[in-house]
Structure prediction request, 240 residues.
Amino acid sequence: MTANSFYTRQSEARKIKEPSDVERLSCENEVVFNRIISPVLPSDKSACIYEAATGPGILQFWLRKQGFTNREGSDFSEKEAFFAQHVTPAIRHADSLSDLTERFTEESLQTIIALDFYEHIERENFLRFLKIAHSRLSPGGWLVLRGPNADSPLVGLNLYNDVTHVWAYTTTCLSILFKLEGFQDVRFCDDAIPGIYNGAAWKTPLMRLAQIILTQLVWMASRRRVQYWGSSIYLFAQKR
Prediction:
């Protein structure tokens, strides 16, 4: 089975059969996007935002809802791109690395976002992506990524949750790679606590307490400190 055909079948398995299904999934992720991604988005709603590997357009729907009018992106899966085009007609059915290289000039994008992308590509292509992203971002622009959190003992819940995943990186490794490519400000955040939808008033302190206890227990057992417990992690890197 090719990766393209796998994602066609995965869309069906996720019950994505029409544009309204993309809206439903976007609404399910809205709280996390609002809390984690919103703070680094440009204040100018006409700024150009590019999404690599858009999938069916879940983030695109949210960006449209936030009022961003200059949205670009691509996905190598024809079926995924088809759904995303219902939200953002500018989405291309293309390889994102090639699309970024061929269609955009240096410093022409304010934000580049790639959620659940880097774990699907080989290390050499990931390094190439970072280099291209840095060149295409304007000064002050942000690169936003999400992928398996190799710092966490729970990484397998993400890394092994898709047969096309090939790699995961620790925050130490990612920090070094981004700084080597010229990014100065690198930040991390997992979605364990920001992802709490209901009962946050009591669930948030309870989860924080549980993480403190687990962190201390792991430190006592291994002399390793886990800072980010979620199976996925968000990474924010700014170009100065």
Notes: The mean pLDDT is 93. Residues 3-197+230-238 form a domain with the Rossmann fold fold (CATH 3.40.50.150). The two ends are 42 Å apart (CA to CA).
